[in-house]
Amino acid sequence: MIEPLQSELLFQFITFIELYNLTVLLIMRSRLSRVLLFITPLVIVMSCGKDEDPPSGISFELVSENINESDGTVASFQTTSGGGIEKKIKIVFDRPMAENAVINYTVTGTANKKSVTDSNGNTSGYDYYLDGRNAKDTETLVINKGDTEAYITLTIFEDGEFEVDTEDASGNYIETVVLTLSSVVSGPAALATDNLTYTLNIVEDDALFVLSWEALDSKNDVDIDFVAKTGGVVANASASESIDGTLASGGEGFFLPGGYPAGTYNFSYPYYSGTSDNVKFTVYMLNTAGTLNGKSYPYSGSTALSFSGVYKQVNIHKYTDFDNFTDVTYSAQTLVKSGINYTTISSITVPASSSRNASSVPALEGISLSNLKLNKEQIRKLILDKTAMHRK
After folding, report:
1. Which residues, at least 6 apart from 33, have a Cβ–Cβ distance to it below 8 Å?
2. Would you put residue 321 in left (φ > 0), alpha (ψ -120 to 50) or beta?
3. How far apart are CA 69 and CA 332, in angstroms?
């Protein structure tokens, strides 16, 4: 049996132990709290650390543009010292590039990357450079850290050829350069969801001139040629051995490149041979990119700027210089080239000697070509095939 004093002592001892345990627990909790108070901000700071930057989305600023093949000057032709028209194609990013990046893109289209020889042995020169050289099928674009845009540089050349492979909705003959962003090689970049392909349409800007004739006395053995000179030098000529003067299958014709020099051009229409004493000849002029006497006459349109004249037997001029036409000295018609436009185009005046007529015939503007519309096959025959048919 425990005495009252002993019982009191025991109670005090137990109470002491419980208080001690509570104190220890509180101290431990207090230390844990301090630890937690120290660790928690650290964890928060660590968990709120900077996330990895999202990749920069890349795309072309535009999906297509048009550019004339020349700027209307001889500087459009490629020379040993340069030449051509520079065109920069802009690529945009949706945020600055966080680190250096490398992108692949493909180069396609109908324009020639390099000289091409067809099955007939005819060679067409290249139409453009990419970054100062012939383009490859796949190219690489290097983007530096911090850049917000990039450029691909094309140089377009006047090639001295009349190309009619593709026609756009406006009646322009065009060649295309197609650039397509294809893959990310390295760096924090990503292809955007749209505007990944860009098309540059190179517009044919040469002026086209086609000559036809008809013997009004039905003596269909007439052969008329067509010569253009500037500064006494032959700019172009069409002199095939043909007595077919119809636009559908014959006639004569050539083009003057948009990059030819500015100045006055003289047209001659020598009546080379035939027995007709009443030949009506008509020249049709077309220019899609530029103008003729202030108006546009598209290649594929239904009208042309037209001028006519009449020859008789006394006008026959059987010249002999088939290369430089030095003995074709008269000028039946003049026109002034400025850029890709032609102004002050005169009516035809048949010269008083070797090809004479007492009066000139005024211009017949807007003459209908509904039955004489020039399609691509006819243009090829009238223009491109003349080289092979040139008189020897």
Report:
1. none
2. beta
3. 30
**Residue range 117-164, pLDDT digits in tens:** 666 665 567 899 999 999 999 999 999 999 999 999 999 999 888 888
Give the residue among 174, 192, 179 at the shortest CA–CA distance from 89: 179
Displacement of CA 303 from its chain's centroid (Å): 26
CA 250 and chain centroid, separation: 31
Give the separation between CA 69 and CA 33, rounded to whole angstroms.
79
What is the spatial distance between Cα 254 and Cα 338, in angstroms, rounded to a whole number? Answer: 19
Q: In the chain, where does the domain assigned CATH 2.60.40.2030 lie?
A: 56-203
Give CA angle at 130 (113, 140), nearest 5°. 105
CA distance 30 to 384: 98
Residue with tokens 């301090």: 34
What sign does the dihedral 110-113-115-118 (CA atoms) show?
negative
Of 391, 36, 77, 82, nearest to 242 by C-alpha is 391
Which backbone phi and psi does 24 adopt, to 5 degrees? -60, -45
Place of tokens 């001295």: 160
Nearest to 343 by CA among 262, 237, 231: 262
The tokens of 389 are what?
Answer: 């048919």
342-391: pLDDT as tens digits = 999 999 998 766 653 333 344 445 555 555 566 666 666 666 666 566 66
Mean pLDDT computed over 219-237: 94
For residue 369, give the 3-state DSSP assignment: coil
Q: Which amino acid is at 100?
A: N
Task: Decide if 228 contacts 237 (C-beta within 8 A).
Answer: yes
Q: Mark 57-76 as b/e (b = at least 16 C-beta within 10 Å).
A: ebbbeeeeeebbbbbbbeeb
Return the closest-CA partner of residue 254 out of 367, 381, 147, 84. Answer: 381
Q: Please check whether residue 102 is in contact with residue 157, taking contact to mean a CB–CB distance below 8 angstroms.
A: no
Question: CATH for 56-203, among 3.20.20.100, 2.40.30.40, 2.60.40.2030, 3.40.50.300?
Answer: 2.60.40.2030
Nearest CA-CA partner of 154 in 134, 140, 174: 134
Backbone angles phi, psi at 69, to 5 degrees: -65, -25
